[in-house]
Fold this protein.
Amino acid sequence: MPSAVFADSLPPQAVGDQKPAPRPPRTPRPNYARIHALPIPVKTYPLPTFVPNNPISLFHLAYTFFAHLLSAPPSHPQPCFEAYFSNETRSVHVADPATVRALWEQGFFGKGSLSRSEPTWMDREKRRRGLLAVETSEEVTQKRRAERRAFKKERARKEREAIEEKLREEGKLVNVQDGEEVHKPDVETQSHEGEPTEGGAVNGPVDALPAPEKAGFGEAGDAKKSVRFSESELHPRPLKNDASAARPTIGDDEPIVDQEHLQLTLEEALFLTYGLGTLRVRDEATGQLISTSSLFTMCRQHSYFPPKAIADLQPDDPFLISYVVYHHFRSLGWVVRSGIKFAVDYLLYNRGPVFSHAEFALIVLPSYSHPYWSEPSRKSQTVAKESKQWWWLHCVNRVQSQVRKNLVLVYVDIPPPSSLADLSGTVNITEALQCYRIREFSLKRWIPNRSRD
Amino acid sequence: MASKFEPFHISLVANRYFIHDVDVITYIRREHHICGVLLGSIPQIPQQNVFLGAPLELMPEEARLLFEKGAAVVVDDLSLHKDAIAFLPHHVKHDYLRDLRDQGMIAGRGVQKRTEERKHKALERLGLQDPPTSGPCDTTAPKEEPLSNNAIDSLPYFDAPLVYNVTPPLSGRILPPTDQPTELKPPKVPFSYPLYEFLHAKGYFISPGLRFGCQYLVYPGDPLRFHSHFLAVGGAWDEEMDLLDIVGGGRLGTGVKKGFLIGGAETEEQACKGHASTPDVRVFCVEWGGM
């Protein structure tokens, strides 16, 4: 149903000197401000405002106050959201469609198992069968990518023609018809098509790495790029819309069964359970309710692969570190979502992905600043966990500057295990989380030559 | 053809490898496909850092490669100079100092000559007569004299009217010859050395990739002529990799129209299985699909 371009994608590139064709009128956006009115799935009931020159407002205020005093309206969803802990995917699944909608609309929790982020499989399926006319965000993206690909192809063609024109002017290119003497990028890519490439994205085993031509300073025309692109890049897949319009598929008359469920990450599930108290997690096999403290332990165990025994859990479990950060930023009112597509741990949205692009990209780094960790026996391990290469930071930073996000390094100070020692029996999550400290560093690429006033 | 410069000195200063000789710098770029990074500021234009000159800093990998080829000798710069100067024979030292002073004198003469000529011309233009004592024709005769004079050491300095103090860019003359064996071990290299060696053997030019967020930038030819094709990251064979690093590298590489290349050497056991004498290097190229 949403027709908006999703916030995660890059802002559309400027097309240079070409004027883009006039766009068809856009379908009006849904009223996101109303759909996503609640920032978290918890309702609040503020007292009505008191207007001094209107005495009735005082009665209204008093009435509401006493009514709430006698029987408070429920702040949490009734009944409580239910979800299942899935061992295989190490995530928490929500199957009930109403809960799925509620969790997405109120705080942007989770991700559709068959969608990019918002669970829109049902809409896409309906649209495929012609029952629904509104584009989903996935289709918008796909269309945009196809457009961009066509634009790039056109640009490459023009560049090639310009080079040929220049060569012809210089008299270096005599017989265009021969085609063999002159290197054409198209000819080059065609010749690669016949070769079997292994896999989609990973192309080329070791033997296939081409040796560059001997770097003699000969004619300039033989400079060719030896990077190869996978099949999918050379042959863009047809748009889904076209395909669906062309062929009526099997079973279109059957009633649509929703195949999709919502996947919550472990951090999201614990935040909903422990932080907000709006979710109850059940065991997938037995269907028994998992208490918050045992869910906490399970999440910690499952942050390792294979899951660790309870006795081996450490204060620097990947789950604990990332949950501390997740909880911290959720508490500050940010919408926190996974940032794997931009090679970071989390993305921070101001109100949510449908409203604006993510402003900040977070990288979570453990910091072993407590003296316990600097004892010689542990020093080598902690240093190995802490240290990262400079080129890694440059890589992440450049990716963020490409997509115009601010990179924030979030350091989590790890307490010694003794402070969590009493956790082995009954877990007090609050006390455990209080041992952690968070430091944030914002980072920006600064180039002296370009940043000069 | 390599014999003129090889083996040359690679100076080790504070765990970094330098080459100071401009001829060697151009030579290894031409013959060994090693560019290094120029570090020194240029005396004529010192207030910028876009164009830099000698010395050239080498990556440890580059130093190791030259070392293993037998093209270079790694020397500890500090101890080498200390020893060389402490045990310098008296006559060599004198010769050297005299040579320096001669150079300074020649430079001073040149400057003086030009000044005289300018003065002469200016006076001619004004129609005045040149004072006959120091004509430009006079300078040629005494110029030869101090060079050929063996007893120059006894001459006081002020005999020469203008002597520049020459700072020699290289101290190769007073150092021991480069073919003397040194006890220095081969340069320590990171895990990614097999990848570097592999790519270099294929004919690629490789420069450090910090600017692009990778270990090596891989050029198909001289970097002055080509754009790089790959952003390379090397690792040990069983090293665990963060998935986020692959995402980041893939995105970054495709964003700048390069391939993100991961590679590493096989372990010894695998090499034995494959009946290869040395561990093979395997590389993979990652490309980001949705950009």
Remarks:
- The two ends of chain A are 46 Å apart (CA to CA).
- The longest strand of chain A covers residues 360-367.
- Chain A has three domains: 1-30+120-259, 46-75, 313-453.
